[in-house]
Amino acid sequence: MSISVLLTVPVLFLSAFARCDSQPNIVFIFADDYGWNDIGYHNPIFQTPNLNSLAADGIKLENYYVAPVCTPSRGQLLTGRYAMRYGLVHRNIRPAQRMCLPLDEVTLPEKMKQAGYATHMVGKWHQGFYTPACIPTQRGFDSFFGFYICTEDYFTHSASGGFDLKRGETDPLFLYLAYQSVHAKYASVPQQYSDLYNGIIEDERRRTLAGMVTCMDEGIGNITKTLKDSGIWDNTILIFSNDNGGLPAHGGNNWPLRVRESLYECCSG
């Protein structure tokens, strides 16, 4: 039987517990700025059938904590340590800053490699890149395809005056998939997704965000289908989580949890 794990803001699902003869594959999906009230089983307005199904078949963890902004939240995931321990607790790393996750920190992918895993990352890094030693393929990942900074245009992959889309320089698989979705800066989604909420959500920003949520949910459905079609779903742990809550000023909603608007940083510059 499969072991699948999902985390939203904050939620954990474990579809089944099974004793495996071999090490399980692990797929960790990380959403960006995703609000507590922006998933279907918390708010039925949102069309998230794949996340709802994974939640229904698993165990939900709805009482855990993440950092309020991207860099410390992601660094804590990658190191298993509070960001205050290594000096990245207060702010996001800006594109021009000579700063990164401290090089003496041991990372999750490094430990996974020691356990015999092939380690791969797709998506948002945001742990610094001012020197080659800081980038994902130097911090334990065998491969990387994604972007280094806080946020970028969803279609052109441009931000802060430049282009940011990089491809990194029978083992069990560890895949860290860090979505930019549903980060609201450069908010954009194919029209058919936001059109699903016409006449349901009046606010244009929230309607766009809802479309982004549904598009992300479809992508997660494609991932689970691929795992099943490949015959490895029954020996896979799938985790879904979020770096921090939604931003009300850009359409996100954390009700009934506390608003994080005052903690928002735009990440540019």
UniProtKB/TrEMBL annotation:
Domain of life assignment: Eukaryota
A UniProt-annotated Pfam family: Sulfatase
The entry's keywords: Calcium, Glycoprotein, Hydrolase, Metal-binding, Signal
Reported cofactor(s): Ca(2+)
Signal peptide range: 1-22
Domain Sulfatase N-terminal residue range list: 24-246
Keyword field contains Chloroplast: no
Similarity section: Belongs to the sulfatase family.
Protein name, entry field: Arylsulfatase B-like
Source species: Saccoglossus kowalevskii (Acorn worm)
Lineage: Eukaryota, Metazoa, Hemichordata, Enteropneusta, Harrimaniidae
